Amino acid sequence: MIESIPPLHQHYKTLVRNLHCHGTDHGQGPVTEECQLPLIDLNGLNSLDERERLECAAAICSASSEWGFFQVVNHGISPELLKNMKTEQLNLFGVPFEQKATCGLLNNSYRWGTPSATRPTQYSWSEAFHIPVTKISDQACYGDGFSSLREVMEVFAGAMANLAELLAGILVNNLGYRKEALQDICDSSTCFLRLNRYPACPISPEMFGLVPHTDSDFLTILSQDEVGGLQLLKDSKWVAVKPNQDALIVNIGDLFQAWSNDVYKSVEHKVMANEKRERYSIAYFMCPSYDSLIGSCRSQSSIYRNFTFRDYRNQVQQDVQKLGHKVGLSRFLLR
Predict the structure, then answer these.
(1) Predicted pLDDT of residue 299
(2) Is the pTM of this model over 0.90?
């Protein structure tokens, strides 16, 4: 049988052996409860009743400030499209590992484990394709046998982009700006689609599928399966997000927190591996152009100095190389 799963176990054991340690205590604190994220029905935005439209928009903004996360239903992305995307995702990850890792598939976007990890607590038990949206339509990135993947992913990425623009426009308008203000910053050429697979992990129930982090973008939209494993930091405690297959999860990224002058919150989150079941998810990352100034929309009382997406990415990469982890927005505080 040809193995499609990356050698996560072997790589992790090597990391532990090199450090002469065996601990998997991540020092993140126990999960105290399972939470239901704020659930918002986007049909409210199309209501003939102005009060209902305003209430729906207000719920989006409130959740972005209080939670940094929320989930949406009646979001306009059909169940059939989500099902087709999941089918294509399963087929893609079923490709032999060596082919995924070496053939340059999808713009050479395949990632597995955590190459930069220097200790077990920095290791992610997962594999992913982190695909630039601009490459999704490029037939040369697929090779033979993936034409249906390209067709489905084109439609899926377009639908996610439209939803991201809708939600971001509401959040920008709430700050007193026209939604076009974000169009001057964000650029589809730097947005990404990430297909994730978290294999069952026999090592420990405390193993990270994805290490604690915040997203380095404006806005993320996530489609996940029923397995669960997503956790976020709420009131200084880790809470497990109850999966809802009928909803998409939306979260604020670092750049939206900076641009909103901390009105909206980019919240630390992680994925815990499952001992017995594999997990799949797909994330759309709404990003600005690399050279657009981020800074704060409130220049007179700005918390952050002006910086670009390129500056931010470079700083994150430097910190990961030197420290083994991302530092994030605190690098760009004015005081």
Answers:
(1) 67
(2) yes
Residues 219, 283: Cα–Cα separation, whole Å = 10
Query: Do 4 and 95 form a contact (C-beta atoms < 8 A)?
Result: yes
- Would residue 54 count as lying in a domain? yes
Catalytic residues: 279
Give yes or no for residue 22 having a pLDDT over 60: no
Phi, psi of 329 (to 5 degrees): -65, -25
Asked whether residue 332 is assigned to any structural domain, the reply reads: no
* CATH value at residue 283: 2.60.120.330
Look-up of token digits 């992610």: 124
Q: Which of 275, 269, 279, 276 is nearest to 228 (CA)?
A: 279
322 found inside a domain: no
Q: Sign of the C-alpha dihedral, residues 168, 67, 25, 7?
A: negative
What is the domain count for the chain?
1
Domain that holds residue 225: 8-291
The pLDDT tens digits of the residues spanning 191-241 come to 999 999 999 998 888 899 999 999 999 999 999 999 999 999 999 999 999
